[in-house]
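lol so apparently i was supposed to do this last week
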Amino acid sequence: MKQVKCALTIAGTDPSGGAGIHADLKTFQELKSYGMSVITSVVAQNTTGVQSIHHIPLEMIEQQLDSVISDIPFQAFKTGMIANIDMMRIIANKVSKLEVPYVMDPVMVATSGDTLIEENARNFLRKQLLPLTTLVTPNIPEAEYLTGEKIETVHDMKQVAELIVKKFGAGAALVKGGHMEGEAIDFLYDGSAMHTFSAKRIDTKNTHGTGCTYSAAITAYLSHGLPLYEAVKLGKHFVTVAIKHAFPLGAGHGPTNHWATREEGVRI
Ligand SMILES: Nc1ncnc2c1ncn2[C@@H]1O[C@H](COP(=O)(O)OP(=O)(O)OP(=O)(O)O)[C@@H](O)[C@H]1O
Ligand SMILES: Cc1ncc(COP(=O)(O)O)c(N)n1
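anyway here it is w/ adenosine-5'-triphosphate bound
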């Protein structure tokens, strides 16, 4: 039997199944990476917004990390919602010893506009976690927050992608243009070159969990040993198909459709 590839996500939950850990595990499954998860916060949320958040005790986050890391090797991992500095400190300590690709989705605000990370933790994330990453995947507001720069044009997006790598020490930066108008354009700066990934904008309000799904797809492709550029290119295709067929579920922003990627033959 071919060696099983494994991927880990360290993130918060979404009982409505569209974002966070749930989106990550569904994506790993579709892309044939054995999915594992460490839960940081239980979030009562749905397509309309966040109703309440319960943080997992720090010792329990640490225990979950130890349980997975001590038992099952994985070939790539990602982080999503990490709500506060204490959690970040524990996670940074554990993951700094790992020698596999690390994709950070610097989750700050949900599509609904609800805040998912404490204000003072943003600085810590930038200083302590960002330098550990292979790739960070900010949307426009997150990229602005990480750099302190305003983003208004695609030129600004490219400049900020470079800054995140050169000034703040990320391995690579993928600045996503979901929040811009026109084509859905993302820019990847990998430390030496700028790459552009573009897709036609889909007219939908059902974009709950797109950032989670995209970064999870990239993580899954990396777990299979693909180079970063290929992983992002295929990840972009995966998320575009998932948005194109997004489910009109719930009263707010519906979730992306992971099954559709199977039906359209998006595979490893
Ligand atoms: N309406 C759309 N049509 C096509 N692609 C889109 C659309 N909206 C977002 N995307 C793409 O989806 C990916 C996620 O981008 P986005 O900037 O929305 O991330 P995000 O804000 O982290 O996601 P989320 O909405 O989950 O918070 C990017 O590749 C972006 O270009
Ligand atoms: C636990 C968790 N992590 C991340 C997101 C962001 O996803 P989105 O911005 O698509 O709502 C979320 N809503 N919940």
